[in-house]
Amino acid sequence: MKSTMPKSVVIRGTGSYLPEKVVSNDDIAKFLDTSDEWIYARTGIKRRHIAAEGEAASDMALKASLRAIESAGLTPADMDLVIVTTVTPDMLFPSTACILQAKLGIRNNIPCFDLEAACSGFVYGVEVAARMMQSGLYRNALVVSSEKISAMVDWNDRSTCVLFGDGAGAVVLSASDEPNIGILGSVLGADGSDNAMLRLPAGGSLMPPTRQTVEKGLHFLQMDGKEVFKHAVQIMKDKALEVLDLCEVSASEVSLMIPHQANVRIVESVAKRLHIPMEKVFLNMEDCANTSSASIPIALDSAIRSNRISKGSYVLFVAFGAGLTWGATLVKM
Ligand code: ACO
């Protein structure tokens, strides 16, 4: 086999895209029985970006991808692999990754596929791409997470719609001959027995869309917020510690933790249990809300562009989501 195995896989470029339209908590309070005080105190969210009508996951993915590819100093033609993570694909099939490939105008002999691990999708996507790249067969991979959650929530349900936003984040991963840098390790996991805690029941093969499913609102996201909260804190803490242990790096050596941006109270509880001060935790849910799998790469891009990450520093991603799924990745930038 003609391939050279790389010594490491590095994050060579990042990009993100947030739709132009911003909806504040006060805007929502105009049509729902809620308030900025309630939402902000419970979640840390003030506003969210909402995609335009007709603006699909692939459109947002395209914008984030082009920015990531440009920041990597590469062109779309240099990509050897495209993974899109999303719970809000353009359509059930073909994959959003294939639609994105066409929009990027890139060659047709590379693998392109969607990966669905809900809010943990980006961490899963990076690990899958990195492992594929370690074969030596793929030098540059585009991992892009794009979510239009606004299309899947019931805008009359105050217990869910206030939590989410739309957007996309992307990274270009590249094979490197420098050892001990880039993606140092990941831990991934899932527990499908808790799949009803957070789900969108209708629209798949179990419950194809009918007038009844629509009338009953079964094509909207459903969530047991309290249970999600409890599980998220425990699992995110455990997985962060596991990946640090795997990589033989201590929590105090972490320069920046970039957690899934679901809720500031979840993040504060996790950081406290890890003894990581909040100054070392990147937060943007105040402006972006929860963008599911896109939240970590959007935050990463923002952290890099605002000089919060220096070369050689340790950055920790940690995520938790529907499935249940979870994952943590340690990166040496
Ligand atoms: N505005 C005003 N009142 C509200 C709202 C709202 N938007 N939403 C719910 N309430 C009311 C409820 O109806 C309830 O009223 P009641 O006591 O009269 O019945 C009251 O507020 C308390 O509701 P709880 O659900 O107990 O509120 P809680 O403190 O648990 O906060 C929340 C709810 C914010 C959803 C919290 O459980 C949470 O953050 N959970 C994590 C969920 C999450 O982040 N999910 C994201 C997807 S999963 C992921 O990304 C990891």
**Cα gyration radius (Å):** 19 Å
State the strand order across the main sheet.
1-7-6-4-5
Low-pLDDT regions: none
Main sheet record: 5 strands, mixed
> What sort of overall outline do the alpha carbons produce when their principal axes are compared?
globular
- SS summary, helix count: 11
Q: Distance between the terminal alpha carbons, to the nearest Å?
A: 30 Å
Count of DSSP strands? 13
Task: Indicate the structural class.
Answer: alpha/beta
Percent range of helical residues: 25-40%
Bound ions, cofactors and other small molecules, one mention each: acetyl coenzyme *A
Structural account:
Strand 12 and strand 13 form a beta hairpin. This protein has a 5-stranded mixed β-sheet with strand order 1-7-6-4-5, with helices on both faces. The chain has a 4-stranded mixed β-sheet with strand order 8-13-12-11, with helices on both faces. Helix 3 packs across helix 4 and helix 8 runs parallel beside helix 9 (264-274). The protein is built from 11 helices and 13 strands. It is globular, with a radius of gyration of 19 Å. The protein has 333 residues and is α/β, with parallel strands linked by helices. The model has no long low-confidence stretch (mean pLDDT 96). It binds acetyl coenzyme *A. Acetyl coenzyme *A binds at residues 34, 38-39, 42-43, 119, 158-159, 162-163, 198, 223, 225-226, 228-229, 232, 260, 262-263, 290, 320-321. The site of acetyl coenzyme *A has 23 residues, from helix 2, helix 6, helix 8 and strand 12.
